Amino acid sequence: MAANKQDLYSYHAFLFPFQWQYCGKDHRDKNFEEKTQLKYFCEQLARYAPKWQRRPLTIESRLIYNEYNYFYDFVRDILYDQDPKNQYGSSDLPSQDDVLAHFEYDIPEDSERYIIQTGGKHYELLIENIFLHLYNTGIGVLSFHLNNREPNQADPESILKINQFGRRLYPPFLALEMDRIGTLQQSLPGLFNEGLKICQYVELPQSIGLSFLEPEDFSHYATETDFKKGVFRLPSFISGLMGKVPIITRKSDESRHVNQIFLNPVLDDRMFVVCWYGNNEIVSNLSKDGKLLKSAGQEYAYLKDEWLYKFAYCDVNLSCQNEQMVAEALKENVNARWGNYGTFFAASRYSFVCLTNELSTLRANYAAFVLNHLQTMYYKIAELCLVQRSCIIRFSDEVANISALNVAPGNQLAEKVSSLYKQYIRFVNRIYFREVTAQEQGIEIYQLLQNNMRIENHVKDLDTEIQELHNYLLMEEQRKQNKVIGRLTIIAAVFLPATLFSGILGMNDLQEAFLEKGNKINSLMFNLAFIAIGLILGLIIAYLHPFSISKFTKTKT
Question: With 12 labelled, which of 111, 200, 374, 489 sits at a CA distance of 20 to 30 A?
Fold first, then answer.
């Protein structure tokens, strides 16, 4: 396809959030903090996938200056890889205190394509950038930044299909034929390939690929043998970018003999979508002549617009067949601050989108900066919220893993809880923020995404989970202390008769009473014999006493 590089009809960013940790030979019994240090991952990228270049921040353009200056200073540490030496393209490995390592895939802008093949149409988007962000909380975000410069895929339905099909990682389901549902045939074993084909017609593309890598056609979900070790496998358009980095996606593939990186999606089968789309016709149906249009019921027209709902929720078909619910969802999730000018932002748990006039109209109205804002500041806000949500899920998963461990000494329960708690404190202080910018619209957009992802509620729940785990650890430590105190008490009880005996009679007096005049008996032997007699008496008393050793230990535990 011949593209006019001066035209941009839509912009799409697909973000794949994942959790990662080290496993294998040297990492099996390490704590959470040790398994998520950035250094080893960065070493593996440098060695086995050299096209990934670490690029610490340098303010080398007006766009970067505007974006950087938009955020509070204390927020920038989690948004930018700020190498202390500030050397562009530095290959220095991150330190133990670094929160983020930012990598860019070495590819010329708009030279390669992101290709989506559906049953009815073929879509090609030019790749602007491919970024990889690794966080020391065991979270990563791989993002594809794509430009749609083709007029034959600029219609509203094409935009919906690009967002719907282009974000898929693996089949969300394996469909059943309608005539099988409700019959005994619906439980027939096998037939995975048939279910895959139906899914590819409805929700999943035929393939997704990068022009310089083999496409992913999801054919490894076609037989029952594909699921013996687990469901998820990295699609080829992602695994191909990782070269020979020792990545596994199923725990059963962990090796005792080599070091590996376990990687798994944090959310579900979809990538998060950030999208800008310019369409004069759609916008004119929602606002005209600098004024939001109203429908017959005096409600704003955008609250009734089905296409806007599908755009906001990345649907091809309307997934809500209730007009009142559609209106309520749009009212809650659309920011129409600049609606009179035809600019609408919308968010959901898995998308952040912007609808405006076409780029040529924005330029004519001196408003083309809206596109830049979405690509820079608002994109950063969306990614930050996605990272926060991913960290919460990651920590909850770690709480569950630690809770499943027994209290045997080899499991190092206290050390693992301490490491998790340390990472959680870092998250609260360096990643989770109530506010990230002083700009009014930035505050609103951040809150819109926070509300949709329910970040605040999840943080409170996570805090409760970690506190309960901490209390459990304290209880176990108290139980161990009680056992030790019990044993010490028993030992003290054993030595008590000898102590009392010697205290009452006095060691010297007793020795003199037993020694005859002129008889030479070794004083040391006498003392040892005396102590032995006391110990025997103590053991007899402890055995006959109702609080014997076994009973005492039992009551304490």
Answer: 200
Calpha distance 39→246 (Å, rounded) = 15
> How far are the Cα atoms of 256, 479, 503, 514, 538 from residue 509, in angstroms, in the given order?
68, 44, 11, 9, 22
Q: Report pLDDT for 539.
A: 61
Q: What is the DSSP letter of 27?
A: T
Structure token digits, residue 227: 């699921």
Classify residue 296 as exposed, middle or buried by CB count within 10 Å of its CB (0-12, 13-18, 19+): exposed
Q: How far apart are CA 220 and CA 27, in angstroms?
A: 30
Count the Cβ atoms, other than its own, within 10 Å of residue 406: 7
End-to-end CA distance of the chain: 75
Tell me the torsion sign for CA atoms 328, 333, 337, 342: negative
* Alpha-helical segments (H) within 305-374: 306-312, 323-333, 359-364, 369-373
Closest CA to 167 of 300, 41, 276, 273: 273
pLDDT digits (tens, 9 = 90+) for 153-204: 999 999 999 999 999 999 999 999 999 999 988 888 889 999 999 999 889 9
pLDDT tier for residue 354 given thresholds of 50, 70 and 90: very high
Helix-strand-coil percent breakdown of the chain, rounded to 5? 50, 15, 35
Structure tokens at 274: 């950030």
Exposure b/e, 421-434, CB count within 10 A at least 16 = b: bebbebbeebbbbe
pTM over 0.90: no
Q: Which residues contact 69 (CB under 8 A, 6 or more apart)?
A: none
